Amino acid sequence: MRIDVIRPGELGTAEISAWRAMQRATPRLANPFLSPDFAIAMGEVSAEARVAVISEASGPTGFFPFERHPGGTGTALGAWVSLCQGVVHAPGAEFDARALLTGCGLHVWEFGCMVDGQPWFQPFETLRQEAVVLDLADGYPAYVEGLRERSPKFLKSTLYKERKLGRDIGELTFDLAVRDEESFRLLRRWKSEQYLRMGRQDRFGSPWVVELAERLHAVDTGDFAGPLSMLYCDGRPVAGHFGLRSDTVLVGWFPAYDPAFARYSPGLIQHLRMAEAAAAAGIRSMDLGIGTGSEYKEALRSRGEPVAEGCVRRRSAGAAAHWLRSAPVRRVRRFILDSPVLYGAADRAMKRYGHLRTRMRAR
Questions:
Q1: DSSP 36-84
Q2: What is the number of H-type helices and E-type strands within the chain?
Q3: CA dihedral 266, 271, 272, 273 (to 10 degrees)
Q4: How many CB atoms within 10 Å of residue 58?
Q5: Where is the BioF2-like acetyltransferase domain (predicted)?
Q6: Which residues fall within 8 angstroms of residue 273, CB to CB, at 6 or more apart?
Q7: 133 pairs with which residues across the strands?
């Protein structure tokens, strides 16, 4: 096995074709966050972005995107915003996790949303959760019928609010892929305000995230796109979503709505309209990411897909130093996530903090 570490922008046409073929051959690898397009965009905004090209005599057998930081510490590519991570590989390929790190010049590699079916990383997992998936393979009517069985009150309430919004304000229309920059700026402003209200760090407060999103929004091919979806009421935007799609999977990334319409739950209406349009466009599933603590995700779900977080460490001094710094924090986080009472208390505290920040900002 040969490992060549390159910048994402150095990927050649043949390597990108092999990467896409591996994604098509294994459906669980079809997530757009695992695509060469995401890796290349990250390489344009991050000096730490790398791709390990794993080859045998017959050619590439895998692609491992990661970020390399000082001290031989590695993270998943775009770890702060990425919702799916791992090695994109040929069917039947096998790897040794520590040998992979050695070939990449890493002592440590941390992951947070590891795709299922990567047994070489399983011994290093510290937490397993589930991503919420909407199954659209049989079309939107079949999805809605399943939703009616699983979450009848949720569906009835959302459809009622959709009708009421139409009666009170005006006709509802939806666009799955909006291209104009003004709408994109509006969605980012809604999302930043939502982060503030929730007491969470604003991802769009980081210039590199804004640049990454803008670069991805500019891509629109059959294999990959960064679609901005918008829900309008009487021609006025009331909710939107920016995500990524491959040829078969749409990933929920940045949903937001106009708080002035909050009582109508426009974000939920947006998700149903988006699922309908995506199914009509040939998308087979929508991945909304980890569902812990999210009532609307649990209501919308068709099934869950396992994802894992953890840390691979080589037997080295650098890895030992990293363990001393990070292990206590991981244990506390795991303890909170495993306790619904503590998780709820932490979430409420963050929202109270966000409410206070919002009031202070308004003065």
A1: HHHHHHHHHH-TTEEEEEEEETTEEEEEEEEEEEGGGEEEETTTTT-S-
A2: 11, 13
A3: 80
A4: 7
A5: 157-297
A6: 172, 174, 229, 231
A7: 287, 303
Which DSSP symbol is given to 197? H
CB 134 within 8 A of CB 241: no
Length of the chain in terms of residues written:
363
Tens digits of residue pLDDT in 336-358: 445 554 445 444 444 454 444 44
- From residue 66, give the alpha-carbon distance in Å to each of 42, 74, 120, 271: 10, 7, 16, 31
Token pair of 358, please? Answer: 């919002």
What is the C-alpha separation between 151 and 11, in angstroms, rounded?
45
Tokens for 228?
A: 């901005």
pTM across the whole model: 0.88
User: How is residue 115 annotated by DSSP?
Assistant: E
In degrees rounded to 5, what are phi and psi of residue 291?
A: -100, 0
The pair phi, psi for residue 172, each rounded to 5°, is -95, 135
Residue-wise burial string across 260-285, b where 16 or more C-beta atoms lie within 10 A, e elsewhere: ebeebbbbbbbbbbbbbbbbeeebbb
Structure tokens at 253: 């990334």
d(CA 315, CA 298): 40
CA angle 102, 103, 105 (to 5 degrees): 65
Three-state SS for 3? strand
Q: How far apart are CA 215 and CA 244, in angstroms?
A: 12
- In tens, the pLDDT along 213-263 reads 999 999 999 999 999 999 999 999 999 999 999 999 999 999 999 999 999
What kind and span of H or E run contains 279?
A: helix 266-280
292 secondary structure, DSSP code: T
The enclosing H or E element of 195 equals: helix 181-198
